[in-house]
Specification:
single chain, alpha/beta, Rossmann fold, Helicase, Ruva Protein, domain 3, Arc Repressor Mutant, subunit A, 3 domains, 5-stranded parallel β-sheet, 45% helix, globular, binds adenosine-5'-diphosphate, binds magnesium ion
Length: 351
């Protein structure tokens, strides 16, 4: 063996298909979620017979295939029929009724949204969908700031299935009774994957992303085990990518256990931008920032105290810094007459 045979050459990468490590990547098959996909399909089924569909709330902790399962059903639906509009909307990105309805227009291929009010767009959407039917999936529904759009859909669209996805089961109880009584959803719980399932999912993904033989057994086993411990496939994918990048940095052609261990030590600084992962206190602070976006640190702290926040200013500042680092919010320094101030802003669109 030559001295440099096991070294990567400049520009060479260990990752064959970077896209496959993306959280958004949708594998062709979704093992261990067959039952859930069937459940969703059952709710949608009446639409095929031109009847009204059933509504569904899906819940479960982050990183366990809720979004993926819903998108899979959408994909199959698209292959089966043109008579049912598939609409998928992430309510973190589209968190007001206006943004949601504009996004629905986009899905329907209606482009003349400019200068139109929400109510006008409601009418346009209803008249379009009511010629056919629709499956409307609202992911991260708990991140929406208002729910008028749900009311509109329930009242004005005749044949539909509404699918709501949330990390919090408790969210259902907080829904306005006006909406709840019309929605009368089925409820589907997503349970966490067991160790075997986690391992198989990670193996499948590694198969998409890496050429054969790149992972040393011990390294892959560690990733699988850690992913199972964390109970979040998304974080597992982060680990996979980081481990590969660490190996690449040393121009090695194999990913070793020590690469994975280094990647694991990075996890502490890694946020998967999922507020369900935050402590209650940080979530509380996040809600204050959302409400008072663009304010100065000191003003925010006042608002925090007024709402019953008990931490010291110093701790508050540290929590803001953490939220910033995790990309939940953004901060910028501003120099004024009184010295430096920090402006804190919410961040919703780039999720
Ligand atoms: N059963 C599965 N098979 C293959 N990949 C999966 C499975 N479950 C989750 N994943 C992958 O894990 C990641 C997180 O899943 P996602 O559906 O986004 O989680 P959730 O919506 O529950 O937070 C995605 O990249 C997804 O493709
Ligand atoms: Mg999701």
């Amino acid at each position: 063996m030559g001295l440099f045979d096991d070294m990567l050459k400049g520009g060479e990468s260990l990752i064959r298909n970077e896209e496959a490590l993306d959280f958004e990547f949708l594998p062709k098959v979704l093992p261990f979620r067959e039952k859930e996909q069937r459940f969703i399909a059952e709710c949608v089924k009446p639409l095929f017979a031109s009847r009204n569909g059933r509504n569904l709330v899906m819940y479960g902790p982050p990183g366990i295939g809720k979004t993926a399962a819903a998108k899979h059903v959408i994909r199959e639906l698209e292959e089966q029929t043109d008579e049912i509009y598939p609409v998928y909307i992430n309510c973190w990105q589209h968190n007001t009724s206006y943004k949601v309805i504009v996004e629905i227009c986009e899905h329907l291929g209606y482009r003349l949204v400019q200068n139109k009010k929400t109510v006008d767009l409601y009418k346009i959407v209803a008249s379009m969908i009511n010629k056919k039917s629709a499956v409307l999936i609202f992911d991260e529904i708990d991140k929406a700031e208002e729910y008028d759009f749900l009311y509109f859909i329930l009242e004005s669209i005749y044949k539909k299935s509404i699918v709501l996805i949330t990390n919090f089961k408790e969210w259902i109880a907080t829904l306005d009774s006006r909406i709840k009584s019309r929605l009368t959803p089925d409820v589907l719980e997503f349970r966490q994957y067991n160790e075997h399932e986690t391992r198989e999912i990670m193996r499948q993904r590694a198969g998409y992303a890496f050429p054969e033989g790149v992972w040393e057994d011990a390294a892959f086993n560690k990733v699988a085990k850690k992913t199972f411990e964390i109970k979040d496939i998304r974080t597992g994918l982060f680990l996979m990518r980081e481990s590969a990048l660490i190996a690449e940095e040393s121009s090695r052609k194999k990913i070793t256990l020590s690469d994975v261990e280094k990647a694991i030590s990075k996890l502490e600084n890694f946020s998967i931008k999922n507020s369900a992962e935050l402590s209650e206190d940080s979530r509380f602070i996040l809600s204050i920032v959302k409400e008072h976006s663009g304010k100065k640190m000191g003003e925010l702290y006042e608002a925090y105290q007024k709402k019953g926040g008990k931490q010291t200013y110093k701790t508050f500042q540290r929590k803001i810094a953490e939220l910033d680092k995790g990309n939940f919010i953004s901060t910028k320094k501003q120099t004024g007459t009184g010295g430096n101030t920090t402006i804190v802003e919410k961040k919703l669109t780039d999720f």
